Amino acid sequence: MIEPRAGVVDSGPHHETREAQTRPVVIFLAVLFVVIVGALIVCWGIFRLVVSTQPLGAPAAPYEHARALPPAPRLQVAPSRDFQAYLAHENKILNTYGWVNRQQGIVRIPIQQAMNLLLKQGFPALSAATPRNQQPLKQGEVLQYTVPSGFTPQN
């Protein structure tokens, strides 16, 4: 705390004159400036040295590898459009007639018709007349039927 001097009238708040000295702060800032400028000059010199000893060579042609595709697997460009196409394809398979295996006479029928047939006829069950070499159905397997005579699927 500053003690008042005799005969001096205090006219308000003043700054500290004993505690903070500006000379060391100015010296620090000057030294910092000199170090930064020196570091920039050293970096510039190293850059010039590298450029002179390791030239870059001829510039590359701008269209040399313009359309090179990345290695697989590639990302989808339009995933929502791809998904819509996939759904349309799957819905077509589920809702139309078509051959599964033409040589064996196995066809697919629309899903709604297949559900109606299952409701009318019930689930197929293996009878005692099942050939010995045929294994019983496992979970998730489907028993396939042959094409009735006179039926010609489209596709």
Descriptive account of the structure:
It is a single chain. β1 (98-101) and β2 (106-108) form a beta hairpin. The longest helix has 32 residues, at 22-53. The protein has helices spanning 22-53, 79-95, 111-121; strands at residues 98-101, 106-108. It is mainly alpha-helical and 155 residues long. 39% of the residues lie in helices and 5% in strands. The chain starts with 21 loop residues before the first helix and ends in a 34-residue tail after the last helix. It is elongated and about 125 Å long. The protein has a two-stranded antiparallel ribbon with strand order 1-2. The model has no long low-confidence stretch (mean pLDDT 79). Among the domains are: 21-53; 93-121, no CATH class.
Please tally the helical runs, counting DSSP H or I stretches of 4 or more residues: 3
Output mean pLDDT.
79
Question: Major β-sheet, in short?
Answer: 2 strands, antiparallel
Principal-axis shape equals elongated
What share of the residues does DSSP label as strand, in percent? under 5%
Lateral arrangement of strands in the main beta sheet: 1-2
Low-pLDDT segments, ≥5 res: none
User: Helix and strand succession?
Assistant: HHEEH
Q: What is the CA-based Rg, rounded?
A: 44 Å
As a percent range, the share of helical residues equals 25-40%
Number of E-type strands = 2
Main structural class: mainly alpha
What is the terminal separation in angstroms? 102 Å
